[in-house]
Amino acid sequence: MFELPEVETVRRDLDRDLVGKKVKEAEAMSMKTLGRYKNRKAFTSQLDGMKITAVQRRGLYITIVLDGESTLVVDLGSSGSLRRHANKDAVDPDTEIVITFTQHGQLRLLDADGTASVFVVDTDALDDEIPELDGYGLDPVDEPVSWTAFGRTLLGNKTKLKTLLTDSSIVVGVGDIYADEILFHAGLRHDRLSDSLSSQEIRRLHRSLVGTLHDAIKYRGTSVAERPFIDPFGQPGEFADHLEVWGKHGDLSGRNRLPIQRVKFGGSWTYYCDTQV
């Protein structure tokens, strides 16, 4: 799945580019992303004539607020991509949704593997329509959290650190890539128990969590072969150039010049340096 920096990169781009634009028409190429609907018209008719007033994010959902008290919800899944296009641009075979504006082109949803979904809800009913929003934990990008509050969460759980970081009920939007990077910069092992950390280690982990996510957003997300990420203007994320451990098994660590290690953890590879304790 895409992680918080990728989804936030998309949100920021679309918020700058789409607010104020009015939908001329919407088209769905198939039912692949429309699991909540019985037919394509039931979805597209909810967008015709609507004006975009804001583009927000709730966890890993992109919420495009429309006038008329409704919201277009987009879940990119692990293969979805929102792209801005001119009307005349060739249509990619993976295109599922095309939203044409009265001015300034189109917004297209591409989804090669069928993991994305889109739907329109009443804005006031958003939490009811997406119950998992109530179960989300800390969102370090949307709402700053103090290291002391973060520390209470850590000490209140007897959980291995990578398991904790990738649990959306504790921290939103952190997956394998960013968890490994966060733990490397904090100098902590993935299998260290959260209730064993000292105050200094809690501070380091908090600083690393916030700093890593913001740096990844600065470089517009991470695009790797295992999970390509393309922004709304067709450019890949550049944070892969700044990864220190993830995917670098056998490379020399920048911290001790020894090979970076990897181990299976929770069903996937975890990458780390021997200096992590």
Describe this structure in words.
This protein is α+β, with helices and mostly antiparallel strands. It has 2 domains: 4-135, MutM-like, N-terminal (N-terminal domain of MutM-like DNA repair proteins), CATH 3.20.190; 147-272, Orthogonal Bundle (Helicase, Ruva Protein, domain 3), CATH 1.10.8.50. It contains 7 helices and 10 strands. The chain has helices at 4-18, 40-44, 126-129, 147-155, 161-165, 176-186, 199-218, and strands at 23-28, 52-58, 61-66, 70-75, 80-85, 95-101, 106-111, 117-122, 261-265, 268-272. The strands form 3 sheets. It has a 4-stranded antiparallel beta sheet with strand order 1-6-7-5. α1 (4-18) crosses α7 (199-218) and α6 packs across α7. The longest helix has 20 residues, at 199-218. The chain is elongated, with a radius of gyration of 20 Å. The two termini are 28 Å apart.
